[in-house]
Every structure is written in structure tokens, then in C-alpha cells.
Amino acid sequence: MSTRRWRWIYLFCVSLSCGLAQSPPPAAPAAANRRITLEVVVTDKSGAAIPGLQQQDFTLLDNKQPAKILSFDAIQGGAAAANPPVEVILLVDEVNASFRAVSSARQETEKFLKRNGGELERTTSVVFLSDKGVAATASSRDGSALAADMNQNENGLRVIGRAQGFYGAGDRIQLSLHALQEFAAYEAAKPGRKLVIWISPGWPLLTGPRIELTSKEQEKLFKNIVALSDALRQARITLYNIDPLGLADSRGLRALRYEGYVKGIKKASQVQIGNLALQVLAEQSGGRVFNYNNDVAGEIATCIADANAYYVLTFDGLPGDGPNEYHVLEVKIDKPGLTARTRTGYYAQP
């Protein structure tokens, strides 16, 4: 595909996604706006989650400066450990995946739901993103019932006439970004932590040539990056991405290319189109990206295991010297060999 056509896709992405930042939520008191909740997963060198830590074991840095932890809660154990309980959403992406990938995603999701005789540890729902929109099962801990409900959902794979080729890429970007923003807005009205496991190779932002954007285009994309970051944080969504084709995609451009975009964007002049990729948003939310394993059902379980032992910290974010000032967040653990994973940053306002 020519650079000119890829630029058309990217400009289409700019024009459609700029609507994400056009309707800000009603203004709240400054202090309330600055209160930030972090869910922190602490792991050892083997990747196992570590429970039983105390507040004094944690140091929170906001732009490399120590931040006061206002509240601390250690969550450990079953579904009743968190109040309100953690919600799990399995999203099967029928827009950005081939028929083979969608079939694999459905089979592996059903396999996960039927584990342990269909008895799920946490309330779960299955969401389908298709060209027709978003459809969801009811929330339940009965995995067998969810699997039966899921199989009643007609495969909505690419009914848009232009879904193939470079025009279709623009359509898929539009559907994906709009769905993520609307999903975050819906979940923001519900209390508690949500694990959103997006089963997809990702929308087509990492496979084309690098395109030089104008300053105006970068400014529009920057506003959308800020809007999506804020929306996911306020909804307390930890986003995960699982590629349903696993090893079949592991050598593709998406597998590692996204890592070059994970670092938080501080100003519009740094923006590239890849900063809006699903994999990037997942890692920035404190989630993970899985694209090297064919055991999708097992990877779903690994994502959900993050809710078995984690820590909830709150602090007041610093006011920005100007609008949309990016602040890097870092959590350090005062014990050797342990690593903390959480949201990587936030955008402060004056």
C-alpha cells in the first residue's frame, strides 16, 4: 500500500477521533479532579503476584517527586476480597480480525468460560465488537451460561462494504476508537475496578509506513490521547490485549513495534499515530500485551489473576503548569526483587 494511501487513513483517523475530546464531563472541584486511584500489581522475578505488603513498603513518585499516599488497601483472595468486586469484561473483536482469528477467539473464550465446570471466580461478561456495533452478554459467574449466550451471538465479522482495503482500515479505526471511548464512559458510572481483556490483533495503526504529521494534525491527536487516557483512568479500567493468533502473528510488525510508542506523550510535537494503538493503551493502563502464545484461554486466566492480589493506592495529583501536562508515575517497592506494575502516568490540569 502506498504512503499516500496510508496517509489518507491516518488523516481519516485524525478527523474521526478528534470527536473524542469534544464533550468533556461536567466540571468538578479541583481537589476532586486531582484525586487519583491506582491499582498496583506487585510481582517477583518469576512473575508471581506478591500479597501481604504494607503501605510502608511502597514509594509513589509523581514526576520523580515523592507523593503522599492518602489511602492504602491490600486486596487478596477470592471474588469478595474487593468492595465492590472486580468486574471482568472479555471483548471479542470481530472488526479487526480475520475470520480465522475470530473463530479462534470465540473457541478459546468458550474454553475459558467452561473451565472448572463453568464456575467463574469473578463476575464476567462477554462483549462483541462488530461492524454492527457492540453486543454483550449479561454479567454472570456461570461460565456455561455465558458460553451458551455467547454462541447465540451471530458472528458480525465485517459487514461494512468497504471493510477490506485501505478504506476499510479507516472504518475499523473509527469503530475501534469510538467503541473504546464509549465503553470507558459507560464503565465510569460504575464503581470499582474493571479488567477489560480485548482479544484482537489490534486496530491497523502499527502496520503502515511512518507518516509525518502536520502540527495541526498532531495537536488533534494529542487531545485524543489525553481524552482516552483520562477516560480509562477515571473508569478504573485496566486494559489487556491478547492476539488470538498468538504465534502466527508473533513475527509481524505489531508484535514489537508498539513498544516504541509506549512512553507517555508530553506534548503534541511528539505525537505519532502509533500512540493510539490498542497495545500501547493497554500497557499504559497497567495491563499487559500477549502475542506469543496460542493458549488464549490460559492468557485470559493470567490476566484475571491480576485481581487475586493487588494494592489500591490513592493520592492527589499535582496541578499542571498548563493544560494537559503529562506526569510520569512510578511505584517502587522497598523489598529486593519485586516489581510494581500500574498506570504509567496521567495528564494534569492547572
Fill in the keyword field for this structure.
350 residues; alpha/beta; Immunoglobulin-like; Rossmann fold; 2 domains; 7-stranded mixed sheet; 4-stranded antiparallel sheet; globular
What does this structure look like?
The chain is α/β, with parallel strands linked by helices and 350 residues long. The chain has nine helices and 15 strands. The chain has helices spanning 3-17, 30-34, 99-113, 143-151, 165-188, 215-234, 253-257, 278-284, 296-304, and strands at 35-43, 58-62, 65-67, 71-76, 87-93, 119-130, 133-136, 140-142, 194-199, 237-242, 289-290, 309-316, 325-333, 339-341, 345-348. Strands 5, 6, 7, 8, 9, 10 and 11 form a seven-stranded mixed sheet that branches. The longest helix has 24 residues, at 165-188. The chain is globular. The model is unreliable at 23-32 and 159-163 (pLDDT under 50).
Outline:
With 350 residues, this protein is an alpha/beta fold. It has helices at residues 3-17, 30-34, 99-113, 143-151, 165-188, 215-234, 253-257, 278-284, 296-304; strands at residues 35-43, 58-62, 65-67, 71-76, 87-93, 119-130, 133-136, 140-142, 194-199, 237-242, 289-290, 309-316, 325-333, 339-341, 345-348. The chain has 9 helices and 15 strands.
